[in-house]
Amino acid sequence: MKEELEKIKINTLKEIASSSSIDEIESIRVRALGRKGELTAILRGLSKLSHEERSETGKLSNEIKAALEEAIEKRKSEMENAAVEAMIHGDRIDLSLNSPDSTIAKKQGHIHPISQIQYELEDIFTSMGFEVLDGPEPELEYYNFEALNIPKHHPARDMQDTFWTEDGNLLRTHTSAIQIRGMEKKTPPFKIMAPGRVFRYESTDASHENTFYQVEGMMVDKDISVANLIYVMKELLRQIFRQDVKVRLRPGYFPFVEPGFELDINCLICGGKGCSVCKQSGWVELLPCGLVHPNVLRFGNIDPDKWSGFAFGLGLNRLVMMRYGITDIRHFLSGDIRFLNQF
Ligand SMILES: [Zn+2]
Fold first, then answer.
1. What is the pLDDT of residues 154-180, one digit of tens each?
2. Which of 250, 215, 191, 198 is nearest to 320 (CA)?
3. Residue 161 and residue 200 in contact, taking contact as beta carbons nearer than 8 Å
4. What separation in Å is there between the alpha carbon of 322 and the centre of ligand 1?
5. Ligand 1 center to residue 129 CA distance, Å?
6. Measured between alpha carbons, how far is 287 from 216 in angstroms, rounded to an integer?
């Protein structure tokens, strides 16, 4: 009887060790320890034994039963852990991998060249202490014209053909509208810049668009002069074009500045020798700028006797065109993927 029990123990332990599934191990358990199992059958025969043998065999079979149950549980949990491990490693998804389907990979987009330069400008201006402001594209006539020293019937309004809405508002024709909104919120001294989309009601050609992008800049402090303006402009252009850029100021008329200038830069395409982009002059007109007109400061609730400032409006489209040698402004909004994929 004793040998028989030991044999069951050894064989069953071997089977447990070599089992390879939960189902298999369960059938081993039923066969050895179940109600009709091998061990149970032996225990049933105990009554035929002497008292001494009975107690000895009973004790042994209980020990074997406990050992087998322990071995079964251990093997089961090994298998369950292995299954979980396999699931973790087998189902791992690497989201950084490109899709093996190349048509999906090609659909991955990138930033439009205008937005790229806008983000660069925001970084440059922020590093010089300017605060980035935003303003609405549909605008009140007051912010777009009146507060910028362009009253009704002023001839300067004709310089900017305007999209009017039926209720008398408009789509902003320049980011200068944000100057007034900025001054209303800030107290001097301050430096602000405001990038944005602007609209003109005009027919399009290689150098004119009805929708384009500007950055407005303004600095208000004590004793601001043209020298401050030139310094900031040169620093800005040096960082954008990653080289020193020669600039010149020509007198220009804009109602919101006095004195007003057109800032030209030395043509970066021909280096000043003359080419089609600079119309053989060696200079490219880049931005209007000047010292803020006292009336405009007053509209912004700033005392022009105490404070002065400079302002400029930089065309982002023209900047991108200069940087990459693009000759037609209409490409930017064409949605032509062959154009956009070059940047
Ligand atoms: Zn040139």
1. 877 776 789 999 998 999 999 999 999
2. 215
3. yes
4. 10
5. 33
6. 10
Question: H or E element: which one contains 202?
Answer: none
Residues of the chain above pLDDT 70, percent: 95
Instruction: Extract the tokens encoding 302.
Output: 């700033």
Give the distance (Å) from ligand 1 centre to CA of residue 160.
Answer: 27
Cα 305 to Cα 186, 218, 289, distances in angstroms: 17, 18, 21
- Is residue 150 a contact partner of residue 156, using CB atoms and an 8 Å limit? yes
Cα separation, 43 vs 34, whole angstroms: 12
Q: How far apart are CA 271 and CA 43, in angstroms?
A: 106
Q: How far apart are CA 313 and CA 320, in angstroms?
A: 15
Write the pLDDT tens digit of every residue in 120-152: 999 999 999 999 999 999 999 999 999 999 988
Pure H helices in the chain = 2-18, 22-33, 38-44, 51-90, 102-106, 113-127, 141-144, 156-159, 177-185, 226-241, 294-299, 316-324, 337-340
Residue 248 alpha carbon to ligand 1 centre in Å: 15
Distance between Cα 168 and ligand 1 center (Å): 42
**Surface-to-core class of residue 17, CB atoms within 10 Å of its CB (0-12 exposed, 13-18 middle, 19+ buried):** exposed
- Rounded CA-CA distance 210/198 in Å is 8
pLDDT in tens, 246-272: 899 999 988 899 999 999 988 887 888
Rounded to whole angstroms, how far apart are CA atoms 222 and 211? 36
pTM over 0.90? The answer is no
Ligand 1 centroid from CA 326, angstroms: 13
Give me 44's structure tokens.
């049933």
Bridge-based pairing state of the strands 190-199 and 131-132? parallel
Nearest to 249 by CA among 226, 221, 270: 226
